[in-house]
């Protein structure tokens, strides 16, 4: 048995749910794919798939084997690609995960430049505000803001994003314009952001000179998605404390009004995070360097 070919066939069938599609992808007769899977099951002494005339699905043993073997094949292909990349431009697939608004407002609009530099790379960008597991989700690197709690990961700092506090003109005309952060605590309603998983709502920190104030405030609505967070502020549901790059287009258009501008908040530190035991491939390296350059050129820091 060609064990490597059998493993490739197994992973392909697991992902496509089809022996026919796998045969076409690997340019093999369907009968050969069937024999490879049978030989692999005999070698492992377990049944990997449930097979019916309509459907192919993983058994419990098959699912556990797929989770590990898919990573092995990824590492195999990455090792081959890195040797090629040493003598040519990086190529292959790069799996990245980042927050919703960072992707849609900052990164994706700038990707034509990245594509011109690295036309042979394929990006798969997972876009969400939820935490991801780099191993389980098979992600090469994640772009995240704030403190990286998992000390087992490597985090490279690439920049920082400043905050702005704002509200719609209609909200301010109804409730007045706060002149001090303590006004937010007593006289206003805030739109709040809570973190997926923990449900935690971080207080808003304001500083001016030696004065430091933490504001929790009252809320009508809290959300765990940055696009929904901005939408709630634009709907006039409360005062919004958000990243400046998200709010600036709406401030320029008059839909939001900045307040408490003489006060500042600690910027959101942005890092690219990856596994410590993972070789930093050429694909990851050029993306990290490009992100650093993108933040250095930005005017929202």
From TrEMBL:
Pfam families: HTH_1, LysR_substrate. Keywords: DNA-binding, Transcription, Transcription regulation. One of its GO terms (biological process) is DNA-templated transcription. It comes from the Bacteria. CDD domains: PBP2_CrgA_like_3. Residues 8-59 form the HTH lysR-type domain. GO terms for molecular function: DNA-binding transcription factor activity; sequence-specific DNA binding. The keyword Transcription regulation applies. Belongs to the LysR transcriptional regulatory family. This is LysR family transcriptional regulator.
């Amino acid at each position: 048995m060609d064990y490597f070919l059998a493993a490739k066939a197994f992973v392909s069938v697991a992902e496509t749910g089809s022996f026919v599609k796998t045969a076409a992808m690997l340019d093999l007769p369907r009968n050969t794919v069937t024999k490879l899977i049978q030989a692999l099951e005999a070698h492992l002494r377990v049944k990997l798939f449930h097979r019916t005339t309509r459907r192919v699905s993983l058994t419990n043993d098959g699912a556990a084997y797929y989770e590990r073997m898919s990573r092995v094949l990824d590492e195999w292909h990455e090792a081959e690609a890195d040797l090629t990349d040493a003598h040519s431009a990086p190529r292959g697939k790069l799996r990245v995960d980042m927050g919703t608004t960072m992707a849609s407002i900052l990164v994706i609009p700038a990707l034509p430049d990245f594509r011109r530099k690295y036309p042979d790379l394929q990006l798969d960008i997972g876009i969400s505000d939820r935490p991801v597991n780099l191993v389980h989700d098979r992600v090469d690197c994640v772009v995240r803001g704030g403190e990286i709690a998992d000390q087992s990961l490597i985090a490279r700092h690439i920049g920082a994003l400043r905050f702005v506090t704002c509200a719609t003109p209609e909200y301010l005309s109804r409730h007045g314009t706060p002149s001090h952060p303590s006004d937010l605590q007593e006289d206003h309603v805030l739109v709040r952001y809570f973190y997926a998983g923990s449900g935690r709502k971080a207080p808003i920190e304001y500083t001016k000179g030696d004065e430091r104030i933490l504001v929790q405030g009252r809320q009508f609505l809290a959300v765990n998605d940055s696009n929904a967070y901005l939408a709630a502020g634009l709907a006039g549901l409360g005062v919004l404390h958000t990243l400046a790059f998200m709010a600036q287009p709406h401030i320029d258009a008059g839909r939001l009004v900045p307040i408490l501008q003489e006060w500042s908040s600690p910027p959101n530190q942005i890092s690219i995070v990856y596994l410590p035991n993972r070789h930093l491939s050429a694909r990851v390296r050029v993306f990290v360097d490009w992100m650093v350059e993108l933040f250095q050129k930005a005017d929202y820091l």
